[in-house]
User: Fold these one by one.
Assistant:
Number 1:
Amino acid sequence: MERRRRPEGDCAPRRVPGIVRGVMRVSFHPDYRADLPASHPYPMGKYPLLHERLLTAGLITAADVDTPEEAPLAMLARVHTRDYLDRLAGDALSAAEQRRLGLPWSARLWRRARLAVHGTWLAAEAALREGLAANLAGGTHHAFAGHGEGFCVLNDVAIAIRRLQAEQRAARALVVDLDVHQGNGTASIFADAPDVYTLSLHGERNYPARKARSTLDVGLPDGAGDAAYLAALDGALGTALAAGPFDIAFFVAGVDVVAGDRYGRLAVSVEGLHRRERLVLTALRTLPTVIVLGGGYAATSLHTAQLHAIVFEEAAALGRTTEQRQ
């Protein structure tokens, strides 16, 4: 049955009938939100707002929420250099490094970054058990092994993948990165790594100015709308999945592709975002899949959270729960 289109401005939570438990396990911690100066553009408020929205819509229940702890340094060191981690832990980032990061160092920020890493790890464990799980943060794909940039302190997806591989719980991983900004940190970390396939579909002329090399990069022109975006995505997913098999997939579900995003420069509609999430979740249906948020810079934190909720709405509509959860 064809789903009825709704007005683009309608952002009321979609309550999905018949769900007794939520559509998936999620990781969340109240300290995913760290204090920033009032003038700072990063929407820290989206994390608790998304958590509240999913509960209100019945897409998750309190029993579905896993509470992360601070990831230990040994886990972070699977990807990041000891020098970088020591400087983060010791409040030793230079002013230039903090400008590159785009965030002022604080003990709360350092704690938040480690919580988010562990949240992605918990979601990966849940996805291996149940087929689909999410971290209500994460997707910090601009973090390199030896530095952070673009609001990204630690690369949660890369750390989770390397731990899974070290523990022999997954041999090959697929990263589907649909943030509007290329996942340069992730691409760099896994450069020439045959056990990780990185797909990045992004704005070609957007940040970062100098792109890293993913396994598959698909750059789109400014102003690309639904038709061009979805056609490019469909082709890219086909190419990536043909390079399998994979044991797990990580979906960086950035919503900064939507028209009007402060840093996006594309023109995907809200309905187009629904179609994107449906396309990805359907393509990855046979793979354990971890959803992480990635970026989103709508006019308000509330609107950004509403856009992030769409992937959960689509997962519920597609029935991406598993028999283990019944």
Number 2:
Amino acid sequence: MDWITPQWHAPKQVKALASTRIGGFSASPYQGLNLGMHVGDDSILVQRNRELLQQQAQMPSAPVWLNQTHSTVVAELNQPTSQVPDADGAVTSTPNVVCCAMTADCLPVLITNTQGTQVAAVHAGWRGLAGGIVENALAQFSDDVMLWLGPAIGPQAFEVGEDVLQAFLDYDSNANKAFTPTGHKGKWWADMSLLTRLRMAKIGIDQISDSGLCTYQEPQRFYSYRRDGVTGRQATFIWIEQN
């Protein structure tokens, strides 16, 4: 099994990781450590994958999975639960509650305050990002924060139309810095990481670390919906370790 440990300056009690598809029990086209119950994979194998990761990563409880719909809803979690909230982000100040965001090209965003007493995980597709889901999560923090941007589709692989460009320009004219013409009429390469940084700059947040990993370009390591269509999901996790 293989996972990514964020390189950022989070307090020592804040634990985080991003899974990959390496390891696990799922068969093709979900080959590996698929964590998504909603993609057509065998649910028994997905549950085995989830339990294996929880054990190997020494998580203090089962992650609280979300029913993600590209919304801008951020759920507050006060205890571990097997319920599946309808939300695209989760925030907690309770130790040993594992927040997570499932992705297969969308941008996972982890947040912690500098005291390490509050954390959040956000699933930011372009709709959620343009709609302000990261800002919605940050609104629940009262202290200084830092962000980590996990593996997502990169700026040389994410082709979008004029509607996506306009959605970001409507909020910030500087967003054009994150779009490059592809050479196809009305099509642009979108840089989700830069879009996030530009939005954060508008609200004075600059402590942002970036994995720099592209899900589309590493088929052996990551699931990618844009690349494969029918595929699995990796996830990005964060929790506060009980002292």
Number 3:
Amino acid sequence: MHVENTSFEGLVVLTPRVFTDSRGHFFESYSLQHFENESLHFNWVQDNQSHSSYGVVRGLHFQKNPSAQTKLIRVLQGEILDVVVDLRKDQPSYGQVYSIVLSSENKKQLLIPKGFAHGFSVLSEKADVLYKCDAFYDKQAEAGICFNDESLAIDWKIPADKMIVSEKDIILPSFENCNAGF
């Protein structure tokens, strides 16, 4: 697996080595040994999976401390624009946005450390997204940032009239008012 560090401390893109033959393909999507060799030490405790249609925008979500989560995101079917916002005030990338296309074709994964808000938009007809978490979901710690916060200027790659956003995500606070605490 190829590990690519981004300009955001701890935010890593992982690309597996894919073996292809007449039967199809095979790759390791996760190996504890490989992660440890790369000094990526996490105790994954929960897997989450979503199925969405074109135009769905989910996020931007995070959990506050002490229930903050590191996530490992990958796409099983389809294509998404995965988006994160750095909420860590002690980092030079604080308040900055990082986005990457993850798909079943490119097989890339995004490792998102604690202290980031996360969301994605579905660019294909359908998408199945799987992500590992190193902390359990905690309803009391649930928080987020409004997906269309003007100060973040996120281009979700979906026309506004085609976006499908939950009521819960529409009413999330702005980045300025999210009180993340990281």
